[in-house]
Amino acid sequence: xxxxxxxxxxxxxxxxxxxxxxxxxxxxxxxxxxxxxxxxxxxxxxxxxxxxxxxxxxxxxxxxxxxxxxxxxxxxxxxxxxxxxxxxxxxxxxxxxxxxxxxxxxxxxxxxxxxxxxxxxxxxxxxxxxxxxxxxxxxxxxxxxxxxxxxxxxxxxxxxxxxxxxxxxxxxxxxxxxxxxxxxxxxxxxxxxxxxxxxxxxxxxxxxxxxxxxxxxxxxxxxxxxxxxxxxxxxxxx
Length: 238
Hints:
Blueprint: E1 9-17, H1 40-53, E2 60-64, H2 67-77, E3 84-87, H3 106-112, H4 130-145, E4 152-157, H5 159-170, E5 187-195, E6 198-209, H6 223-230
Parallel strand pairs: 1-4, 2-3, 2-4
Antiparallel strand pairs: 1-5, 5-6
C-alpha cells in the first residue's frame, strides 16, 4: 500500500490551560510555582469549562504534575470515571531569578520573552532555554501520537506548553508563539491527521476560548502583562 492510499485517521486534542492562580504573595514576593493552587476565581473558570466539555468523548486525560493543572483537570472532568495521567514533561517552562534581571531591563525582558523565544540561545527570563523546553514538550507529545489507542485526548497544562503545541500545529515554531495568547482555563482544539504512525497534517479548530467570558469583555491584559503587573519591588529581592 502506498503512502497516498493509506487511510487517514483524524485525532483530536483538547488543549487546556489551568485556571487562575496567584504567583505572588501580598508583598509581591514570588511563590514557588510548583506548588501554587487554583484561586477561587480559577476554580470557577475550570468549572465553566467543564460544563462546555460535558458529554464530549474523551479517551485519555493528561495533565502536568503541578497541582494547578491536576485541580483544573479534575474540575473539567466533572467526576468522569477515567484514569488520569500526570506527566512531568508537561510542566511549565522554568524561569530564572527575577532579582538577577536589572531593574531597568525588567519590563522589556518580561513583556518580550515570547517574542524572542526563537532567537538562538534564548531562555525564559534567564531560566530554561526555549529550544530545550520545546524539545521536552514535543518529544512527549509525539510519543503520545504514536499510541493508536486514542482518538480524543484532553491535555491540561500551562501557558507556554500550550504555545509550543500550537506553534507545532501551525508550523510556526518558537518564532510564532507570541501570537497564541492563552488566558486562564482556556480551551484550544487541535486536529491531527495521521497515516499509521506518521503525522501528515494538523489544524487548529479552536483557539483560546474562555467559556466564563466568551467575548473577552473582561480580559484585557496578556499573560505577560499580568505577570509584570504582579511584580513589586520587594519581590525582586526575595
